[in-house]
Amino acid sequence: MKCIYITGMSGTGKPSVIKNLQNKGFTAIDTDYGGWTEISSPEGAPEWILKTDQLKQLLARPLASPIFISGCYSNQTYVYPFFDHVVLLSASLETILRRVTVRTSNPYGKTVHERNEIRWNFENIQPLLKKNISAEFNTEMITIEEIATILEILAGK
After folding, report:
1. Structural domains in the chain?
2. Residues near 50 by Cβ (< 8 Å), separated by ≥ 6?
């Protein structure tokens, strides 16, 4: 079965896509929750990174159905070889900032510091994310339901 990694800046809709896929009965994991990440300080500034060994163990098992994993971490490229597709969710900076301001599911993006960090990530990290993707979906132009349906097709379902 196929494995698909869903990435994108904060505020692009990763948890919404994961929830939609879960509601359809798929194994879909938002790595922001459930112990899939840890704090690392390799260059002095602490940051959340994926527990890549834990994720590799999950993906090494025989899969009875497709699996969808979402997240955006500096070390995620280490697990890309275990995925059939890497999909980027995107939106304009203005939309991302609006979404993080009003969302209630995640407190990130409410402070001035965090909003500045989002701006920096949009300008500096998002171009890096675009280098290794199979597809990109602008969540301003296509609905979460449509994205989930396309991901099902990519996964062979």
Report:
1. 3-154 (3.40.50.300)
2. 31, 36, 37, 71, 73, 75, 76, 78, 79
Instruction: Identify which of 135, 122, 127 has the alpha carbon closest to the alpha carbon of residue 94.
Output: 122
pLDDT tens-digit series, residues 99-133:
999 999 889 999 999 999 999 999 999 999 999 99
Sign, Cα dihedral of 147, 134, 81, 33:
negative
Residues in the chain: 157
pLDDT in tens, 21-39: 999 999 999 999 999 999 9
CA distance linking residue 117 with residue 112, whole number of Å: 9
Q: Rounded to 10 degrees, what is the CA torsion of 109, 17, 150, 86?
A: 60
3-state secondary structure of 49: strand
Measured CA to CA, the distance from residue 118 to residue 133 in angstroms comes to 21
Spatial contact of 52 and 62, defined as CB atoms under 8 Å apart: no
